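Q: Okay, next protein. This is TRAP transporter substrate-binding protein from Oryzicola mucosus. I've checked the sequence twice, so it should be correct. Can you predict the 3D structure?
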Amino acid sequence: MKVLSSLVAAAALFATTTAFAADTLRFSSFEPPVALVTKEILTPWAKDVSAASNGALNVQIFAGGSLGRDPAQQLQLVEQGVADIAWVIPGYSPGRFQEGTVAEIPFLVPDATAGSAAMWEMYEKGLFKGDFNKLKMLGVFASFPNFVAATKPVSTPADMNGLNFRAPGPTLLTAIKALGAVPIGGITGPSIADSISKGLIAGTLTQWGAVETFRMADVITHYNTVPLGATPMLVVMNKSKYDSLPKEAQEALDKFSGAAFSERFGAIFDKSMKDTRERIAANPAVTIVDPDDKLMAEWQNAVSVAKTNWIEQNPEGQQIYDAFAAAIAANKSSQ
């Protein structure tokens, strides 16, 4: 009996020691746990990394803003060590990841699959610099293209004239201004529906997933799917924390990061856009305009200044734009 008790005690000690040996990484998401990116992409990714580490890692998702509710706060959480990993929207931190805002140029990113693959290639080739090098980049993505979501019909560029309109990034705001609308920045995803309800804005540039996640469909009934630029997105990690991990833990993170993460993100994001659009379109009060070629050309001409300004205002702007456009074309043709 004493021998058995000793064995049980030893097993318990081993289990406890093993549990404490695992590094727990706090992964922050401002989205609710049931929202698209958090539920379908980030949470499965965290589970895959944890499993691949053979007990060296436990990547724990803190969703719904439990470590910090403000989407604009996520980068700071990682830099201050409150979170080890976070999903970050660069547009909420102007100037920090400037080269990556090339994805916001209208009519450039066709979908999240090609856009995300191209974004990682740009980073891997060293064309995204600045603050990209101050953190451990686990994923560099682009969303499905943002389009017009409004409280009133918007078919042509002229219909945007005078409307207060929100966008999630600086280049997208330039496009709004070019359309004769009043660009409104500083409104994060969770605040959009409330801002529309209060009459602060008449609409926003967004994509289907955000419409559903942030309950915009409760206040918006008019959509125009003209592709006015994607939203750059990052999954970043505190570099010091990454460097402190054992090799097995680092290898598990690396296995599911980079190009593999871009592929996962793009495929799931794009599929969800199709499914979500169908759910939103089922509402008989909803009107969706898919511009024909003639109308698409009219929109493209109206927002062309956004591309021109981006190239002029960024060092090596033309080089970055050309390289990104080539990467988009290559990844689009390989689909």
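A: Here is a summary of the prediction. The chain has 13 helices and eleven strands. The longest strand covers residues 136-142.
Q: Noted. On to the next one.
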